[in-house]
Amino acid sequence: MSGHRALTLTCSVVGAVIVALDGTVLTVAQPTLQRDLGASFAQVQWTSTGYLIAVAGLLVFSGRLGDRYGHQRLFALGMLGFGVTSAGIGLAPGVGWVIGLRVLQGVFGALLQPATLGMLRAAFPPDRLRMPIAVRTGAIGLAAAAGPVLGGALVAGPGWRAVFFLNVVPALVLGLLALTLRGPRDRQSSPVRLDVPGALLLAVTLACLVHTLVTLPNDGWTTASALGLVAAAVAGAAFVQHERRTASPLVPPGVVGSAAVGSALAMLVAASAALNGTLFVATFLLQDTLGLDPVHMALLSLPLAALMIVAAPGCAVLLRRAGARRTSVAAMTVLAAGILVLARASGTVGFCTGFALVGAGFGTVMVAATHVVVRQAAVGSAGVAGGLQQTAMNVGPVLGVAVATTLMGLGHGHGLPLVVLAMVAVAGAVAGRALPERSTETINHGQQGANARVPERR
Hints:
Elements: H1 3-37, H2 41-69, H3 71-90, H4 95-123, H5 130-156, H6 161-165, H7 168-178, H8 196-219, H9 223-245, H10 253-256, H11 259-289, H12 294-300, H13 302-322, H14 324-344, H15 348-376, H16 382-408, H17 415-431, E1 438-443, E2 452-457
Antiparallel strand pairs: 1-2
Protein name: MFS transporter
Membrane topology: Multi-pass membrane protein
Main location: membrane
C-alpha cells in the first residue's frame, strides 16, 4: 500500500471512529450534564436531536460539495470544525450553548462523514475497496463498544466536560493532516452546478422525518408527529419532482437509478433499524423485566460488539469468494435469526448467542452493502454515494427505535417488537436479491477519460 493510500485510510478510519465515539460517550454523559447545568429532560434530549437533524439534512449535499471541491478539503474542514465545536461544548456555560454548538457540530459532522468514504473511493481501485471498508467498519464497531466504558470512566472522573475534550486534539491533528494529503485529484475538470434548491428540499424532508422519529419514543403519536410526517412526505415529493426536471440534480441519475445501489441502501436502513430497535427493546427486557444492572447487561451484549468487529474483515473475504448478493442475503438472515433467538432467550447462553448472531450479521451486511454503494459510484459521484450511505445509517436507527416504541406501547411485551424487527431484517434480505452476482459497469478510476467497461464479481 502506497503512503498516500495508507494516510487516506488512516484519516477515513480515525475520522469515522471520532464521530462514532462522540455519539456513544454522549449518551453516558447526558444525566450528569443535566444535573450540572440544571437542564430539563427536553433540553438534554435536544443535545442529541439537534445534532441528528443537522447531520441527516446535510449529508448528501456535503457529499456533493466533496465531489466538486475535493474530499480532502471537506474532510479537513469538517474535522477542524468538529474539534473546535467539541472544545466549545466542553467550555459551555449553559445548556443553550451546548445545544447550539451541538447543532453546529452536526454541520461539521455532515461535512466529514461522506468524505471518509469519498476519499477511499478516490484513492483505491474498485477491486481493492473491500478491505479498507472492512477496516473502517471494524473500527466503528470497536468505538461503539468502547464508547460507553470510556464515557463512564470520564464522567466518573474528570466530569462530563471531559467527554467533549476527548475529541479535540485528535480532530484538530487529523484535520491538519488531511490538508497535507497529495494524490490523484478527485475533483471534476468541469464541475456541475450545485443543486441548492434540491439540497434544501432534501434537508427539509430528512429534518422533518428525523425529528418526528426521534421525538416519537417520548411523546408518542400526536398531532405534531402526524404533521411532521406529512411535511416530510410533501417535501420529499417536491424533491423528487425537482430532481427529475433540473439539469444538474443533487443526486445523479447514475447513482440513484442503480438497482444495486438502491438495494444496498435499503439493506442498510433495514439492518440498522433492526439492530437499534432490538437494542432498545433488549435494554428494557434485561433491566426492567429481568432486573439486571447496566454492567451485567453490558457483559451479556459484549458478543455483539466482538462479532461485529470480527465479521468486518471476514466479510471482505466473503465478498471476494461469494459475491455481494449471497454474502448480504446470508448476513441479513443471520441478523434476523439472532433477533428471534433474543425473543425466546431466557438465560445467559441464549442472550449471548442471540447478541453474537446479531453482531455477526450486522457487521457483515454493513461492509457488504457499503462496498456496493461506494464501488458502484464513479469517482465524480463518490461523495454523493457516501452521503446516501451515511443518510441510510442515520435514518435506520431512529426508524427502528420508533417502531419498537410503538409496538411496545401496545402492551404485548418484548416478543412482538422483536418478531417485527426480525421481519424488518428479512425484508432487507429480500431487497438484497436485487444485488447482481456478476455485473458489467462503468468504473471511473479518477482520471478524465478513464471510464472502462469491466466485468466484476459482486
